[in-house]
From TrEMBL:
GO CC annotations on file: cytoplasm
Record protein name field: Phosphopantetheine adenylyltransferase
EC number(s) from the headed UniProt entry: 2.7.7.3
Subunit-structure text: Homohexamer.
GO molecular function: ATP binding; pantetheine-phosphate adenylyltransferase activity
Organism whose genome encodes this protein: Engelhardtia mirabilis
Catalytic activity, reaction form: (R)-4'-phosphopantetheine + ATP + H(+) = 3'-dephospho-CoA + diphosphate
Cofactor(s) this protein cannot do without: Mg(2+)
GO BP terms in the entry: coenzyme A biosynthetic process
Transmembrane stretches, start-end: none
HAMAP family for the chain: PPAT_bact
Pathway annotation: Cofactor biosynthesis; coenzyme A biosynthesis; CoA from (R)-pantothenate: step 4/5
Function per UniProt: Reversibly transfers an adenylyl group from ATP to 4'-phosphopantetheine, yielding dephospho-CoA (dPCoA) and pyrophosphate.
Keyword entries, A-Z: ATP-binding, Coenzyme A biosynthesis, Cytoplasm, Magnesium, Nucleotide-binding, Nucleotidyltransferase, Transferase
Length: 167
């Protein structure tokens, strides 16, 4: 009989990734240290207006994770637990930068566990250089014409820079 350590593990890392940041990439890499596979799931959030299309976000995530074995990028709609079930994931991977993030993520983890008890949520704290980076901050800097290269991979910065007025 195989024990739990013999079972491949598969985590779902959901988010809007608008745009993908070094913080997201940090969590993906660290997720691969914990799980055999990480599926990065680009979701549409009903209360958010995306600056990049889902297709653009997927293409950027595929580009910045191309060298990471065990990462797949896909699009999901609806409940994250339903996507986890459909994709065969046993864990949901999420990042927490602050106490506010923690409170929100714990509420979501408990709710997801109520909806689908076999799914656990793993919360990771980002490495210090990435702890302050948010997609919202990156969008604001880019929208005001500032350089975002310290916050996002080069492929992402190029797309955002090309959208600047007068670019």
């Amino acid at each position: 009989m195989a024990d739990a350590t013999d079972r491949p593990s598969h985590a779902l890392f959901p988010g809007t990734f608008d745009p993908p940041t070094f913080g997201h990439l940090d969590l993906i890499r660290r997720g691969l240290a914990l799980f055999d596979r990480v599926t990065v799931a680009v979701a549409a959030h009903p209360s958010k207006h995306a600056s990049l299309t889902a297709e653009e976000r997927i293409a950027l995530l595929e580009a910045i994770t191309a060298d990471l074995e065990g990462v797949v990028v896909t699009r999901i709609e609806g409940l994250v637990v339903d996507a986890a079930e459909q994709l065969g994931c046993s864990q949901i991977l999420r990042g927490v930068r602050s106490g506010t993030d923690f409170d929100y993520e714990v509420t979501m983890a408990r709710t997801n566990r109520e909806l689908l008890p076999r799914i656990d949520t793993v919360l990771l704290v980002p490495d210090a250089p990435y702890a302050h980076i948010t997609s919202t901050l990156v969008r604001q800097i880019a929208g005001l014409g500032g350089s975002v290269r310290a916050f996002v991979p080069a492929a992402v910065a190029e797309v955002l820079e090309a959208r600047r007025p007068g670019a």
